[in-house]
Amino acid sequence: MYRSVRTLRKARSILPLGQEPSSTVLPPTVTVVVPARNEEAVLDNCLRGIREQTYGSERGTSSDAPALRVVVVDDGSTDRTGEIADEHAAQDSRVHVVHSDGPPPGWSGKVHAMHIGVEAAGQPEAGEWLLFVDADTVLAPELLSKLLGTAERADADLVSTPGGPPENSSASWPVLMPAGLQMIGENADPLGKGSKAFAIGHCILMRRSHYDKIGGWASLSGRRNEDIAIATAVRDHGGVTRVVEGLSYVTTSGMDPFKQGWGSFRKSFVAGTNGSVPVLLGVGVGQIALSLASPAMFARGVRTRKPGLIALGAIGWVAQSVSHDRTARVMHANPGLAPVAPFTNAVFGGSRCTEPPRWCAARPVGRDARRPSERGFPFGPARVRRSGTPHRFVSRCPIRAVARATPGQCS
């Protein structure tokens, strides 16, 4: 019951998405970085959503200094991901593509892709913001303006919002997501308090000044739970972090089909425990035991006709159901399974102990089928080659600009 009460308290601390930022003569530049590996099924919708953002319309889309610029990192894709990114770059001068062969030793794939995306964007501008968006995520046209306005009003240096379910979403949302949000919330705080700050990697907006202050992604090169890691780093360097409820403006297909949702949570747990099998099993079995304790107590009370056990079991059961209902609504998932929350929570515990069940096998798309990458270069499409330690960014623009960076550098 304590876990359920704490979950309800933390859910209330999530900020509602506010209005657009106060009008300025020249809105600050926002650089969007999209890591993508083997994302041909979802990348087109993601980039269309970004290009259709209403933010910065005062500066236009074809000016020399647009308010919105987009860097896509094609991280060694073996499908049409790179071609799709290049097509968008050909249609929109704000979009730039970086083609990478993948991360060097010591880097996780997504972190490296986001790192080279920021590097390719060039030198920071005054007041600039960075927006990191997963390739399986689609933004509504007003999202960026509202998210930036919310960050300004909260005086936050990093805000993030999870993506909501797409149409015809899988059982991942009502079965796994409520317990998943509860578990993440137990280890990280939406207000940035405690040992870790909470953030959701689907969509992270942060001040570039704070990105540089923490040493950028280079300081987190080997991390796989990069969303919580960067939020915690910003908090530890004096920044303010908040989680925003923007699910009406952000959708993600990263939890569908069910196998992919199961695998996504398991991958997060493996990263959070450094792959420790004993810890994964212990926490998974503990989750199952705690979840089923209330119905077991209730059933035993009924069999032995002990009102005390019946009452305790019922209270624990109801507490889990109320928590499930609240977290499901936060994530825009169907709360209809709230009455059987102890059992869905137990199923979620299984995601820590095992690979996805065979009965839910399906061809993965999006996040599980790729290793992150991005696409951006301020001058034009670029190729990032890996040979030994140095990484070389070579633009294909007429001016043939060249920049160099080693894996340990981040400016």
UniProtKB/TrEMBL annotation:
MF (Gene Ontology): transferase activity
Membrane-spanning residues: none
The Glycosyltransferase 2-like domain, residue ranges: 31-214
Keywords: Transferase
Protein known as: Glycosyl transferase family 2
Lineage: Bacteria, Bacillati, Actinomycetota, Actinomycetes, Actinopolysporales
